[in-house]
Design brief:
The complex is a heterodimer of chains A (126) and B (171).
Chain A (H helix, E strand, L loop, with lengths): L2 E6 L3 H13 L4 E7 L2 H8 L6 E4 L8 H10 L8 E5 L4 H9 L4 E4 L4 H14 L1
Parallel strand pairs in A: 1-2, 1-3, 3-4, 4-5
Helix pairs in contact in A: 2-3
Chain B lengths: L6 H12 L5 E3 L3 H4 L6 E8 L5 E8 H12 L9 H24 L9 E7 L1 H13 L6 E6 L2 E9 L1 H8 L4
Antiparallel strand pairs in B: 1-5, 2-3, 2-4, 3-6, 5-6
Helix pairs in contact in B: 1-4, 3-4
The chains are: A alpha/beta (126), B alpha+beta (171).
Chain lengths: 126, 171
Amino acid sequence: MSYNFLIVDDSSIIRRSLQKALSMANFDINNAFEAANGQEALDLLEHEWIDLIFLDINMPVMNGVEFLRALRDKSETNAIPVLIISTEGSKLRYEELEKLGVQGILRKPVRPEMLTDTVNHLLGGA
Amino acid sequence: MSANEHPIKKVTAYVLSEWAMMLVEPGSQPETMFSQNEPFFRVSAYYQGVFDGDLTIICQEPFLNMLARNVLGADSEEVVSPEEQWDALRELANIISGNYLVEAYGVETIFDLPHFELQQTSFDGVSRYITQKMSKFNGEAAALYLADGEPLFASFDINASDYSNQTGDRR
């Protein structure tokens, strides 16, 4: 099975490095889409099927929490697994994200092997 | 790294080694570590709220190039644009900032996104700044490192009352 990933982060270097880490981990990737904020991601989800979303929290235009609320509000997208990759470390914020149904939270800096293990786990359980 | 080290020193070294895969060594003399003939790059993040302060990182072009290439795992033929180098520096500040706040203030506090400013400057523009930060609090709130042989300066400057609260149980 090949996967469609969506990387949502306002940093182009983070998006490119995640793409590279996923490619090097030999996941069967059909497409790895990118979005620089939550609104761009929502627009893309209107016409693309996504298997897993990698989501930053602090972004301009629409941040990660706002995006998650919109994602969970729509029946077409509310079951898509989301992995948070952010510098966020607040316990209250983590609780808020868990209530919004995220499947995992990784705090930057994230080593490639940590990313690979987590994605393997999420895809295996999907 | 010592357990009594100021969080900015500990976190800067951690992020450089974990994220940028760099070998990090302590530096000592900024005036001899930095090249006066090359441009300087500076990124600052400003905080308001629970405390007022700023995180500042200063480096030069060779560090910037190495940082972006390391983060991307770029081989020698892969092109890394100047925009990506700037983005890498901004992201470095973002990651150091996030880890610093957890290290210094714990996981119970929520901080709003800081505002980041990037600028290219000259030796004259940064030398006085670095000297001032290195002398403040006996240089405890500033970090000076060689990362893969290239100099990097980082400081986290907050109000004096906040500083004593933050380090009161560390001395």
